[in-house]
TrEMBL record, chain A:
Residues 234-386 form the Acyl-CoA dehydrogenase/oxidase C-terminal domain. It comes from Geodermatophilus dictyosporus. GO terms for cellular component: plasma membrane. Its cofactor is FAD. The keyword Protein biosynthesis does not apply. This is Acyl-CoA dehydrogenase. Belongs to the acyl-CoA dehydrogenase family. Pfam families: Acyl-CoA_dh_1, Acyl-CoA_dh_M, Acyl-CoA_dh_N. Residues 6-122 form the Acyl-CoA dehydrogenase/oxidase N-terminal domain. Residues 128-222 form the Acyl-CoA oxidase/dehydrogenase middle domain.
Automatic annotation (TrEMBL), chain B:
The keyword Oxidoreductase applies. Its cofactor is FAD. It holds the Pfam family Acyl-CoA_dh_N. Keywords: FAD, Flavoprotein, Oxidoreductase. Belongs to the acyl-CoA dehydrogenase family. It comes from the Bacteria. Residues 6-90 form the Acyl-CoA dehydrogenase/oxidase N-terminal domain. PANTHER family: ACYL-COA DEHYDROGENASE (PTHR43884), ACYL-COA DEHYDROGENASE FADE28 (PTHR43884:SF20). GO terms for molecular function: acyl-CoA dehydrogenase activity; flavin adenine dinucleotide binding. This is Acyl-CoA dehydrogenase.
Length: 402, 335
């Protein structure tokens, strides 16, 4: 057990740090906790990713034949840490790198791989993931967006929702129903869709925080060539599972903080504790300590999972525990952060206009839903890790159209 | 980074599991509670297999091992509610750094040693004091060893051997020992959290096993989300506790040499605070999943529940440790 870099890891970190310093002037930088709105800063975000990609810092774990670096998960984590240290915001194409790209690698044709993957890494194309629908959230396989074969094309109609980055995306992976006469999981097919195609309409979706990080996407007679299919017709569920497994690792699976970090809360407590009365200080310290313990427990559990992955383990259902623990920690951290504001906790921002903790608080309900609700994750863990029996289901074998 | 046990530590854990499951049963914990037998496996057996001297230097007859080595054994001890506690061995080994004669007696089990919490003129209920003959305590800032008058109360968990002690003799082991005392208490908290980890893990396993065999309303109760989710939450708590225990044990081993003296106090407080609540939730879940049978004297569930209700308050409760974590973090301990 050793929390320090090995000599190889330290050398790699030094190279990454030197590369970032060399390109510093070409990269977008943000303050800690500052949101980066792709609506407002799209060009800078794309340019930043392009610089990083050309420097070999994007797609670290991707195979070399697909434009990646053929590196390890540890190297990937080191790059992420150094980007955070240099205050470079999350890569604009993070959905593409984490989820869409690996799905194309696993299920795409050689033609699709050669056309898409290098451009994805350089943010020449930004990608989104078109899965959830108004009537299929947790029950994703209940989706209704249809794709009907017409000559060499498929014609798509329907609506997707909660689509991150759709407003700036050039391409997306789209899960559709192609055979409603088959059981729900068996009638699905995955495509790559051109987000600029006629009939694609993207509308911002304003969430309870007041911001609009997501979108609704409408498909009206959108034509997709058959060559843009990912996997065989009817194999869409299996293809989607590739995406979802990568998503679980991307969200809280390997020790990354969800929401505000433990360090940010500690710094906030240092600033705000002295302004509280003695009794309130004691109570606030309890809340801060409890939140920090939860955040550290979640972080170190991620480190353990990360060690297992870096020794050759495959992402399994245990990763769901990382998101569950991370969400619980985010709830406690944001709550402690708000309580430290004293009387200002009941307002939407502090007197000097800072809304960091109010915003963190308002995000928590979304965190507990996105990428698998707490309840769905508990079902997954209960059934696939603890081996408890599933609830009886009537929807798995009947034709979807019934 | 490598946040995992070594192969040697995994082997040690497997060996410890075999020893504890072979020498201790929950029947022993129940018999101790009823006053019909001593807790198992007892001091001599723990000394014979070398567990009391894991962190005692080789020069004093111990194994010269790390706190992490001890923690992986303590987890297995906790799973079967073994007694006496390895917390005492861990803490005394730190306190006896300058008293190799006593450290040797700790390791070979020839003297029953306990560490007193609170004033030596009348201590708080202290782990394994009920059967001890030599007591270590902090008198002002002075570390002392002595004999004393032992007053056990009625046990809530008889495997903890709790008793209050008034020292009647005193031998000075070290002056200005406040820092060493605090480090020993932190190491003790780590090992207590490790024993709680084992107990909580076992409690979840027992609950899961029952949920897979008990039927109600025509199906196995583990298929109901209300039951399933309760068990999952307890299991997630166990997994997260394991991470904090390993981190804290690593910090205990790294602390003397490395330039991060604040990491052990932070990590030990985090582990102990989390352990208190994780074991309590696991034990309460164990009782609840069993329903009526889980509330009976004859069922084992209450033995884990008793351990949880006692351990959560020993060596500082969750509130005290949450406060410590917050104070240290505000002072910069997170880096």
């Amino acid at each position: 057990m050793d929390f320090d870099d090995t000599p190889d890891e330290a050398a790699y970190r030094a190279r990454v740090r030197a590369t970032l310093e060399e390109h510093d002037a070409e990269l977008l930088h943000v303050r800690p906790g500052e949101p980066t709105d792709a609506r407002l800063r799209e060009a800078e975000l794309r340019a930043t990713q392009r610089v990083l990609a050309d420097a070999g810092l994007v797609g670290v774990t991707w195979p070399r034949e697909h434009g990646g670096q053929g590196g390890t998960l540890v190297q990937q984590a080191i790059v992420a840490q150094e980007l955070a240290r240099a205050r470079v915001p999350t890569l604009v194409n993070h959905i593409g790198i984490g989820m869409c790209g690996p799905t194309v690698i696993a299920h795409g044709s050689d033609d699709q791989r050669s056309r898409y993957l290098t451009r994805l890494l350089r943010a020449d194309d930004v990608w989104c993931q078109l899965f959830s629908e108004p009537a299929s959230g947790s029950d994703l396989a209940a989706l209704r967006t249809s794709a009907v074969r017409d000559g060499e094309d498929w014609v798509v109609n329907g609506q997707k929702v909660w689509t991150t980055l759709a407003h700036v995306a050039d391409l997306g992976i789209l899960l559709t129903r192609t055979d409603p006469t088959r059981p729900k999981h068996a009638g699905l097919t995955m495509f790559v869709v051109d987000m600029h195609a006629p009939g694609v309409t993207v509308r911002p979706l304003r969430q309870m925080t007041g911001g609009a990080d997501f979108n609704e996407v409408f498909f009206d007679d959108v034509r997709i060539p058959d060559g843009e299919r990912l996997g065989e017709p009817g194999e869409g569920w299996r293809v989607a599972l590739t995406t979802l497994m990568n998503e679980r690792v991307a969200i809280g699976g390997a020790g990354s903080d969800i929401g505000q970090s433990a360090e940010a809360l500690a710094a906030h407590a240092r600033d705000r504790l002295p302004a509280l009365g003695a009794d309130q200080q004691a109570l606030a310290r309890q809340a801060v300590g409890r939140a920090l313990v939860a955040a550290l427990a979640s972080r170190y559990t991620g480190y353990r999972r990360f060690t297992a992955l870096s020794k050759g383990g495959v992402p399994g259902p245990e990763a769901s525990a990382g998101k569950l623990g991370g969400t619980a920690a985010a709830r406690l951290v944001s709550d402690a952060g708000v309580r430290l504001l004293g009387d200002e906790a009941v307002l939407g921002a502090t007197a000097d206009g800072d809304e960091t903790w109010q915003r963190a608080q308002a995000y928590v309900p979304g965190i507990a839903i996105a990428g698998g609700t707490d309840q769905v994750l508990r079902n997954i863990l209960g059934e696939r890790v603890l081996g408890l029996p599933p609830e009886p289901r009537t929807d798995k074998t009947a034709p979807f159209s019934r | 980074m490598d946040f995992d046990l070594s192969d040697d530590q995994r082997d040690a854990a497997a060996g410890a599991r075999a020893f504890f499951t072979g020498s201790v049963s929950t029947a022993a914990a129940r018999a101790a509670l009823e006053g019909t037998a001593a807790p198992a496996p007892g001091r001599e057996a723990l000394a014979d297999i070398g567990f009391l001297g894991i962190t005692v230097p080789e020069s004093a007859g111990g194994a010269g091992g790390s706190v992490l080595d001890l923690a992986v054994v303590a987890e297995q001890a906790g799973a079967v509610l073994a007694a006496p506690s390895l917390v005492t061995a861990a803490r005394a080994a730190v306190l006896l750094e300058s008293a190799p004669d006593l450290a040797a007696q700790l390791a070979d089990g020839s003297t029953a040693i306990a560490v007193l919490d609170g004033p030596v003129t009348g201590s708080a209920p202290s782990i394994d004091a009920a059967d001890a003959t030599l007591f270590l305590g902090l008198d002002g800032g002075t570390l002392v060893a002595g004999e004393g008058v032992v007053v056990p109360g009625r046990p809530l968990d008889a495997t903890r051997g709790l008793a209050s002690v008034r020292l009647t003799t005193r031998r000075v082991l070290a002056e200005d020992a406040g820092e060493r005392w605090a480090r020993a208490r932190a190491v003790g908290a780590v090992v207590l959290a490790a024993e709680d980890l084992g107990a909580a893990d076992r409690a979840v396993q027992l609950g899961v096993a029952y949920a897979k065999e008990r039927e109600a309303f025509g199906r196995l109760i583990g298929s109901y989300q209300a039951v399933k989710h309760m068990l999952v939450d307890a299991w997630v708590g166990v997994e997260q506790l394991r991470s904090l225990v390993w981190w804290a044990a690593w910090a205990a081993d790294a602390a003397p040499a490395d330039a991060a003296p604040a990491e052990l106090p932070l990590a030990a407080a985090a582990a102990k605070a989390y352990a208190a609540e994780a074991l309590e939730r696991a034990a309460e879940t164990l009782v609840q999943v069993h329903g009526g049978i889980g509330f009976t004297w004859e069922h084992d569930a209450h033995l884990y529940w008793r351990r949880a209700k006692v351990d959560r308050l020993l060596l500082g409760d969750a509130g005290e440790h949450h406060d410590t974590v917050a104070r240290l973090a505000v002072a910069g301990a997170l880096g």
